[in-house]
Amino acid sequence: MHFNGYQREKGRAGIRNHVIVLPTVGCINELASEIASRVREAIPLLHNHACIRLGPDLSRARRTLIGIGTNPNIHSVLLVGLGCESITAEELAEEILPYKPVKAVTIKKEGNYNSALEKGVAILRKLVRRASEVERKKCDIADLTIGIKCGGSGSVSAIASNPATGQAADLLVEKGGRVIFSETAELIGAEHVLARRAVDKKVREKLLNCVDRMKREIADYGVDILGSEPTKGNIAGGLTTIEEKSLGAIIKGGNSPLVGVLEYGEKPSSPGLYFMDGTTQASQLFLGMFAAGAQIQVFSFGGGLPARFRGLPSYPCGIPVFPVIKVLGNPEDVEEREYFDIYAGDIISGKISVKEVGKSIFDEFIRVASGKMTITESRTGYRELLQIYANGLLM
Amino acid sequence: MKKAILMNKDDNVATVLKSVKKGEIIAVISTDNKVIKNIEARKEIATGHKIAVNSIGEGETVVKYGESIGTATDRIDQGTHVHIHNVRSKVKYGD
To answer: ipTM above 0.95?
Structure first.
């Protein structure tokens, strides 16, 4: 099976062809934004990285910035740096270069703000013109990597949106694609079920270690997670305990064997289903998925008040370099269906099967991969900073 | 008749697919849409919330998807709404 995508110098094909302006550190977001604002169709991907990060969080930020730059949906990258930051434009450029055109401007090298601005604009105009010449070509569906997250979870999520999404995930894995799901806190109480599907002892242990670490951190914090896991909204939707939420949440990844466990932003090395050790917070997780090379994100939605928020997700990676396919599960929110790409609520009323909705999600992968705009992509306006996940001490 | 779905044959709770009133008779169905039995709701239960399909004793495990989702903190009679007021997580944090 095929989709029409953008072939890259190295790695898998992209489904979008954006030229991005990527600051090396959040201090210089304004300059990156200013450069991008003067060049048609250039997208500034502003973010929260600062030199306050230490050790593992600094490595995670480096991996994420490299991952953004190397993602197949990106045609080329203009890095904008200061010159004194912990992750330099030079080191990022070196990692991105094998995959695609990458250029850098820094205030240090150009001497001042205005020179960096002028040089950046000149380079960026060349890049967008180069990008405009690239045409979509036939690409193998095995080139696709899909990130999956659930949201607005209630008990119906596990009956409609999550199993349908899982079905689509299984279909993609069968065709040689990659699927990543995450949310370590939402493995608690269900880790033994997912661990049974690990391909070997190493993968099983790595998975269980993620959950053990999270449970230790919760113990050290000395708090009851009820009200956060499950949230008040989840409880209103019928979820009672973290075990119940987790058992329903893992359904969204489908039933394929678990071939690996990834760090936040780490790229899968071979086809199949992966678990990423990451947060449940949507904007941070979407970024981790994008950095891991996913071209499409599925947001498997239960319902409740979040489903009534039509701008969802107002998260940065939803717009527009990382298309998000939104699936709605709860028929009680049916009046919101036009704000979702796929409606799975008819599963609850028995009008359609999980298999049928799963197939329509899978078909949507191909359409979106070939250029169809998602609902989120069709919106303009409000954007948030990209949030790179950190879970350690920030200075 | 309104339905509640039993996710696994070993479960003692089912998920109500459309909100039910007190005294309403509900069909408990399997995931392949076969009616297993009919039960009476002892209270109003909202969509997506759980109903006890059997009686569950205090301290017994509440089972959904064939797995434990917690412990009953009270005796739960058949037809009762099963939620945070009568179930606690079994997960232990730390040593």
So the answer is: yes
